[in-house]
Amino acid sequence: xxxxxxxxxxxxxxxxxxxxxxxxxxxxxxxxxxxxxxxxxxxxxxxxxxxxxxxxxxxxxxxxxxxxxxxxxxxxxxxxxxxxxxxxxxxxxxxxxxxxxxxxxxxxxxxxxxxxxxxxxxxxxxxxxxxxxxxxxxxxxxxxxxxxxxxxxxxxxxxxxxxxxxxxxxxxxxxxxxxxxxxxxxxxxxxxxxxxxxxxxxxxxxxxxxxxxxxxxxxxxxxxxxxxxxxxxxxxxxxxxxxxxxxxxxxx
Length: 252
Fold this sequence. Notes:
Layout: E1 5-10, H1 15-26, E2 30-36, H2 43-47, E3 52-55, H3 59-71, E4 75-78, H4 85-97, E5 102-105, H5 111-123, E6 129-136, H6 146-162, E7 181-183, E8 186-192, E9 198-206, E10 209-217, H7 224-233, E11 239-242
Parallel strand pairs: 1-2, 1-3, 3-4, 4-5, 5-11, 6-8
Antiparallel strand pairs: 6-9, 7-8, 9-10
């Protein structure tokens, strides 16, 4: 790679994309070579010599964007949702044909959020009950959030590995959705409220005690250190990495 890392941002007209454009433009050792909106051709990525592409677009576009970048020798940092098991399997097959390329798919770039999910996963086996509440602005198009889904999946895996039984719940009748969405047996409740940005609480309970692990993003600036960490690291981690925790030293 060149001394100045050449970075392109897709989805540059969105709120998150615009913040990433500013962050990359101000970051040491990076050169913003393209800021593409929905109507711009992906060929511009090749023409400008982009080395790392940051995809902050929409679920309907992200898979094609990542495929184009990988096929043209670029590394990719993805903050767009919509990567289900089928899409991930297809991406893994693509990366097998391009073993030099790195792709990071991160449901959340806030370092505090990544740490909160890690702490919750560590605590999961010690409590009888666990539920998740995620709270976001009303313009968010998906529910539950990608962060909540990943948190629930990691918690469920930790509880299975430790042999923790299902949480006690005597509910027999309920209004549809009253107990939230069940993600691998973990109830996840979504709140959409004006004035919020991105917030998550993981609630644990035992007889006589409770533990709450909460993270709050109050503005888009909270995500930019994680975006920049991803941009700086993805080229050194060939293959697919799911979650920014893969780039942090969280073990030990």
